[in-house]
Amino acid sequence: MPIVDSLRPAPGLRVLVTAGASGIGAAIARAYCDAGAQVHVCDIDRYALDRLVTEKPGITSSMADVAIEKDVDLVFDDVLGTLGGLDVLVNNAGIAGPTGAIESLDASHWERTIAVNLHSQFLFARRAVPLLKQSRANPCVIAMSSVAGRLGYAYRTPYAVTKWAIVGLVKSLAIELGPAGVRANAILPGTVEGERMNGVISARAAALGIGVDAMREEYLQKISLRRMVTADDVAAMALYLSSPAACNVTGQAVSVDGNVEYL
Fold it and tell me: What is the rounded end-to-end Cα distance, in angstroms, of the chain?
C-alpha cells in the first residue's frame, strides 16, 4: 500500500465515539464520517445528538450517561444493531470537574469527575474489547487523556488524576491486548479553543483572583507555539491512530498541544 494511502482509515471502519455530539467528540465523529467510516456516537445531551445527526445523517446515535453501566449496555445494543461490530472505540467522554484548592472540594464533585472521566473508560473498554478482538480492520482503543495527564495541575486535581489514570489504562491495555492484535493509545490535547476552555479559564481566573484576559494570556505563555489547538487537530490525530500507517503504534500517550511546557 502506498504510504499516502496508508494514512487514511479504511473505508467502512466501524467506530464508536463516546460524548460524540459536541466539542472534540463531534469533531472526531464528523472526521470519521467524512473519511467513509460507519460512526455511532453516544451523548447525554439529546439536543446535541439531534443536531449532529441532522448535520451528518450517516451517523447513528444513543442517548446515555457514560458513567452508568445500564446506559453503556444499551449503547452497545445499539452499536451491534447499527454497526454489527466494532473496529475503533474512541473513549472521549469527560468533564472539566471542579476548580479549587483540595481542601475546598466537595466530595460529590470529585466522585462525579472520577465516574465520568475514568469509570466510563472502564465500562466502555470492557464491552468493546470482545468486539475489537473479532475485528480484522486494525482494531484499536483511542482514549482521550489531556496534557494534564503528563503535568501536575494545581486547583484541578480531580481532572488531572483521571487524565493520568487514563494514560496508565492504555499502556496496560496495550500489553494486555497486543497478542490479540488490538492496539490502545491515548491522545493528550492541550488548550483546545472553544466554549469549554473559556469556562475553564474563567473558573481558574476566579479561583486565583485575576482577570479572565490575564488568565487567557497566561495559558498562551505556557505553550511553546503560543496558540491553542483546535478540535479538528485532535480529530486528525484520532484518524491517524486508526489508520494502517499506525498499525505498530500502541501503548503511546500522544500530545496534541503545541507543547504545553507547564500548567
Answer: 42
Per-residue model confidence as pLDDT tens digits over 158-169: 999 999 999 999
113 within a domain of the structure (yes/no):
yes
pLDDT for 132 beyond 90: yes
| Cα dihedral 180→28→77→168 (10° resolution) | 50
What is the span of the domain harbouring residue 133? 9-191+230-256
- Rounded CA-CA distance 135/72 in Å is 20
- Angle at the Cα of 87 from the Cα atoms of 233 and 45, rounded to 5 degrees: 60
Q: Angle at the Cα of 166 (from 160 to 172), degrees rounded to 5?
A: 145
196 assigned to some structural domain: no
CATH number of the structural domain spanning residue 252 = 3.40.50.720
106 is a domain residue: yes
Whole-angstrom distance, CA of residue 12 vs CA of residue 14:
6
Q: How many domains in the chain? A: 1
**HSE-up of residue 68 (Cα within 13 Å, Cβ side):** 10
The mean pLDDT of 171-178, rounded to a whole number, is 98
